[in-house]
């Protein structure tokens, strides 16, 4: 019963490097989300998807791209990392059932030096 | 304007006592859901309780209850009989079904510390 799995759990990048965060869910959920959490703050939505092959911008999309080629996977890419992207990244998924509660991955701690 | 407001950055409670964490929200969507999540120091996000905008009864889940006052647009979390393991960050969130494409918006959180 894996739920939502995020990889990697930790990563350190240099400014200008690129990377991809992978989110995988095994619950057949339609909706998937990428959030970032900065110290002492709530979660802010980066991008989201309402189904396979669809993506849309959230509240703070600049500097990030996403893809959802398969229903179970939602990838978050940083093309040219900046120190301002140092944060904890959470992936989440949901259905329209169970009140639409979010199921979260365990988070990725990203540091950009 | 913030959609979710949590006015208490930090709260303290004595073990075994009850505590109320405040949350107010702002929406014009008639269909929405309100959630509370717990984030312990280990970092994971844990779902606690859900209240739908059309629900007549306040939601309860074990020691957690949600005091839903629709006219005041408040959705306070009540934790009864606090335990040391309740020490964590608590987030209120709202999902708007029509005006916000079903996305959830989070408050800035309240840090709860349970004293022995």
- Strand content of chain B is over 45%
Which stretches of chain A of 5+ consecutive residues score pLDDT under 50?
none
The main pleated sheet of chain B reads as: 6 strands, mixed
Distance between the termini of chain A: 36 Å
Descriptive overview:
The complex is a heterodimer of chains A (113) and B (116). With 113 residues, chain A is mostly beta strands. Chain A has strands at residues 4-7, 10-13, 19-25, 31-37, 43-49, 56-57, 64-67, 73-78, 87-94, 103-104, 108-112. Chain A is globular. With 116 residues, chain B is mainly β. In chain B, the strands form three sheets. In chain B, strands 2, 5, 6, 10, 11 and 12 form a six-stranded mixed sheet that branches. A four-stranded antiparallel sheet of chain B has the order 3-9-8-7, with no helix packed on it. Chain B has a two-stranded antiparallel ribbon with strand order 1-4. In chain B, a hairpin with a 2-residue loop joins β7 and β8 (64-69). Chain B is globular and about 45 Å long. The N and C termini of chain B lie far apart (38 Å). The interface between A and B is medium-sized, with 25 and 22 residues.
Write the layout of secondary structure elements.
The complex is a heterodimer of chains A (113) and B (116).
Chain A: E1 4-7, E2 10-13, E3 19-25, E4 31-37, E5 43-49, E6 56-57, E7 64-67, E8 73-78, E9 87-94, E10 103-104, E11 108-112
Parallel strand pairs in A: 2-11
Antiparallel strand pairs in A: 1-3, 3-8, 4-5, 4-9, 5-6, 7-8, 9-10, 9-11
Chain B: E1 4-5, E2 10-14, E3 19-21, E4 24-25, E5 32-39, E6 46-52, E7 60-61, E8 64-69, E9 74-79, E10 88-96, E11 104-106, E12 110-115
In short:
The complex is a heterodimer of chains A (113) and B (116). By secondary structure, chain A is mainly β.
């Amino acid at each position: 019963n894996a739920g939502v799995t995020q990889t990697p759990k930790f990563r350190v990048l240099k400014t200008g490097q690129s990377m991809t965060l992978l989110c995988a869910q095994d619950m057949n959920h339609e909706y998937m989300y990428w959030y970032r959490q900065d110290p002492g703050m709530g979660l802010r939505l980066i991008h989201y998807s309402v189904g396979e092959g669809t993506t849309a911008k959230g509240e703070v999309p600049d500097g990030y791209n996403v893809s959802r080629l398969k229903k179970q996977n939602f990838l978050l890419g940083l093309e040219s990392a900046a120190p301002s992207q140092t944060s904890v990244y959470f992936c989440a998924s949901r259905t329209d059932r169970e009140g639409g509660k979010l199921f979260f991955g365990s988070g990725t701690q990203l540091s950009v030096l | 304007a913030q959609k979710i407001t949590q006015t208490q950055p930090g709260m303290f409670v004595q073990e075994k006592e009850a505590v109320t964490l405040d949350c107010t929200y702002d929406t014009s969507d008639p269909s929405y859901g309100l959630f509370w999540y717990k984030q312990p120091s280990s970092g994971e996000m844990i779902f606690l309780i859900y209240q739908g905008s059309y629900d007549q009864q306040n939601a309860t889940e074990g020691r957690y209850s949600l005091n839903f006052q629709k006219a005041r647009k408040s959705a306070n979390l009540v934790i009864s009989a606090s335990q040391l393991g309740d020490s964590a960050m608590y987030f209120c969130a709202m999902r708007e079904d029509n005006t916000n494409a079903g996305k959830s918006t989070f408050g800035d959180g309240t840090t709860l510390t349970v004293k022995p």
